[in-house]
Design goal:
Blueprint (H helix, E strand, L loop, with lengths): L15 H16 L14 H11 L19 H4 L2
């Protein structure tokens, strides 16, 4: 396991009006979420999939248990099961 160096958080404080506007924008953006059921037939490069999985693996978990299991399925017959 590799460890990353500590990177301090650099935080810019905004005024109340700005954060209220940003929170409203964020709400509208999140409200537009939807389930995706139609997928493109376009093949995704393996490096992109690996980076997505590597990124997902950095998500926080309760008690840092990291209970993640990722599976990449490429065969159409396996996907239909």
């Amino acid at each position: 396991m590799t460890t990353s160096p500590f990177v301090p958080l650099v935080f810019d404080y905004s005024n109340d009006e700005t954060i209220a506007e940003r929170s409203k924008d964020f709400f509208y953006w999140m409200e537009s979420r939807r389930t995706v059921r139609d997928y493109s037939p376009r093949k995704i490069p393996k490096a992109v999939i690996e980076n997505a999985i590597r990124t997902a693996g950095t998500a926080p978990s309760g008690a840092n248990m990291q209970p993640w299991h990722f599976v990449v399925v490429t065969k159409p017959e396996t996907r239909t099961r």
